[in-house]
Amino acid sequence: MSTPFRVEFEAFFDSLRSDLIESISDMSHFPSLPANVIDRMDKSLAMNARGGKYARGMTVIDTATTILTKPLTQDTVKDLFMLGWVIEIQSAAILVIDDIMDNSTVRRGKPCWYRRPEVGLAATNDACLLHSITFWILNKYFRTHPGYVDMVDLMHRSNLITEIGQTYDNIHTPPGLQGFTREGYNALITYKTGWFGFTLPVVLTLHYLGRGNPVNVMQSERLVVALGNYLQVQDDFLDVFGDPAVLGKVGTDIQENKLTWMITEALELCTVQQRQELETHYGVRDVESERKVKDMFKEIGLEKRYAEYQENVIDNINRMISDVDESEGLSKAIFERILSKCVKRNKWEV
């Protein structure tokens, strides 16, 4: 069954995009922008923000429809769509940069933006533009909203946390496996995806609805970070054992020497000989070395280990949900819906 408003949310992008491009191209006190600059911004928006599953954007709508007991007005739906696209566009900016850093080739079944001959490393500036556009939307449409300051502050905070996570991901360990620890991995995923994955859309919606009080925000952050961490472990597993045809992306974690749940588990379970093999082949940009690492992961039993992890983490998150205090307008159903989307998925949802 499709999510309510899913089709309408996707269709709304075209009108928002047209309005944004028209507004940006006609800024007061600035010379008119050349047509090729406008065209580049328009294409970057269209190619990078669209094409995913819109899990983050739809979480905004899901959160609001779960909390509110009365039907949404047209104005409220429009506002929620805009906030959802703020997050989707910001996600696009992050992914454009992430693909460059990871030397990725495919995103959502198509060549990565920077891999296009007419784009190249100028994609870094396109990512900056996408980032700035999110604040342009907030300022244009929400600057008189009572929650505007909290929403902008949350966006800045979320971006900083995510960028710290990206830095951690890229430079925290030297070549080899000596720096790969459970503690390091837990910190990495909390910064990189635990926050941005679902905390941002849930808390942003709470501020919009006037329910972003400290109690609700604290509970939401704690629970949704746990959900985001679960999502990242899934991504780590899918990067190795997922089907690229289903995922829409070719996994690169092994060749890129990434600190992941897979390698962390493997190092805790492997024999001395298996560790030597991992030391030799993990992080080597070679298809044969990658295959040997995948075979080693199977030999160590990571597929079974992952299944056990899923059962345990789902039980833990369900206990956390049952403890949610709903007295100040928060709803357990928000987190139940997010968990239902995450459980045992077999493809990336972003």
UniProtKB/TrEMBL annotation:
Instruction: Report what the protein is called.
Output: Terpenoid synthase
Q: Which domain of life is it from?
A: Eukaryota
Family note:
Belongs to the FPP/GGPP synthase family.
Would you kindly state one Gene Ontology biological process term found in this protein's UniProt entry?
A: mycotoxin biosynthetic process
GO CC annotations, alphabetized? cytoplasm
Instruction: Give GO MF terms, alphabetically.
Output: (2E,6E)-farnesyl diphosphate synthase activity; dimethylallyltranstransferase activity; metal ion binding
Q: Does the keyword Magnesium apply?
A: yes
Entry-linked InterPro entries: FPS1-like, Isoprenoid_synthase_dom_sf, Polyprenyl_synt, Polyprenyl_synt_CS
What Gene3D superfamilies does this protein map onto? Farnesyl Diphosphate Synthase
- Which cofactors does this protein require? Mg(2+)
Which keywords annotate this record?
A: Magnesium, Metal-binding, Transferase
Q: Cite the Pfam families for this sequence.
A: polyprenyl_synt
